[in-house]
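thought: fold this chain, then report.
action: predict
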Amino acid sequence: MKTISFDASLHLGSVMYLARASRPERSASMPDEPDFIQATDRLLELLKAEGIPHVLVGGLAMRVYVAARNTEDLDLILAAADLPRVTGLQVVEQTDWFVAARYGPLKVDFLLTRNVFFEEVRQLHTEEHDFQGHRVRCATPLGLILLKLYALPSLYRQGQIDRADLYETDITMLLRAYPHDDSTIMATLARHFADHDVYAIGEVLTDIRGRLKPRF
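observation:
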């Protein structure tokens, strides 16, 4: 496994600010970078003070391991029962397994542990990292690979092809830097999908393996 290397000087709030600021439709009333930084610090400090178990996933977690794209969202695995303890959180949309919310200027997406797969990742595929003075539990490379593969069938069914393409690129980068055996990956996912979805995910992995082969 490669040594973890990322730009620790770039605050998580700055990453989200820069991603938002780069959008063509950026609003003139968009909060400034310090607002994103302060809101991120407040949220992480609140989660720690309240003793709320949480795991960083998504694009910000990707940046720990690979030269990932920017992201506007803070993605966390969290128990639904703990959401009311996150004071100041404004829920925008909620389903059985997901919550989209705002915390000040931040877009925060929660993957809820009532989904047994998300709980399995939280229990088995995490490690701690330092982020500008915050000690945060983060999904491992394998945890991120599993989460992104888990999302693909739903993305394709919803016609979100561009997002599925991004996820497949993320998986490719992670597998290039942190090789994992396909049998281990598929054995984990097979417990949570019907056979036809397992087959389709296996086809995606085969395609990704082809991309990982040297071209010249």
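thought: worth noting. Helices lie at 12-21, 33-49, 58-65, 116-124, 141-157, 161-177, 182-190, 195-212.
final: tokens above.
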